[in-house]
Amino acid sequence: MSTRTLAVVSAGLSVPSSTRLLADRLADAAVDALRARDVDVRTEVVELRDHARDLADHLVTGFPNASLRPVLDTVAGADGLVAVTPIFSASYSGLFKTFVDVLDRDALDGTPVLLGATAGTARHQLALDHALRPLFAYLHATVVPTGVFAAAEDWGGTSISRELGARITRAGGELADLVAARAPAAADDPFADVPSFAALLHGEA
């Protein structure tokens, strides 16, 4: 059985943050659903706040530094993605958008994605549909039907409302369906197309 990789990207700014809490809940739901489908899975969590300066450097230099490159590779090579951002001024955060801006153009082509967002008030919940979905449609990602928004009133410490819990479970199942149905992502081999020495000697390259 091949192991699938789930990348979890959180753009929360505080520690702890409701954005990270939601990202963890969504990831757990997807992992549980995948294992229920007899699919082994491992998660790779990316806290964008830890790479804010790396992302700014990438914007001005055009190249990822040694700290950021593995993060971009993790997301591009994942079989599925959970992406969660706080909502500022009725849209995704600048940190979240900067990360998307530095991804390779085809990094998420066909990748199943579960979108989540957090804000202080439920008035921002439409940002999932008018801001996040178009962004990931542009990247040719396959976004699951259920997006998950959590407002401040949905949390009671680290516990969540019944409605939010049900939505998380449904979204995790949708992501699991797409990941399980998709062929495992192949690790890029930089030497895969290099001809053998014997072929070079015989002029076959």
TrEMBL record:
<protein>
    <submittedName>
        <fullName>FMN reductase</fullName>
    </submittedName>
</protein>
<dbReference type="InterPro" id="IPR029039">
    <property type="entry name" value="Flavoprotein-like_sf"/>
</dbReference>
<dbReference type="InterPro" id="IPR051814">
    <property type="entry name" value="NAD(P)H-dep_FMN_reductase"/>
</dbReference>
<feature type="domain" description="NADPH-dependent FMN reductase-like">
    <location>
        <begin position="6"/>
        <end position="155"/>
    </location>
</feature>
<dbReference type="Pfam" id="PF03358">
    <property type="entry name" value="FMN_red"/>
</dbReference>
<keyword id="KW-0560">Oxidoreductase</keyword>
<keyword id="KW-0285">Flavoprotein</keyword>
<dbReference type="InterPro" id="IPR023932">
    <property type="entry name" value="CE1759_FMN_reduct"/>
</dbReference>
<dbReference type="InterPro" id="IPR005025">
    <property type="entry name" value="FMN_Rdtase-like_dom"/>
</dbReference>
<keyword id="KW-0288">FMN</keyword>
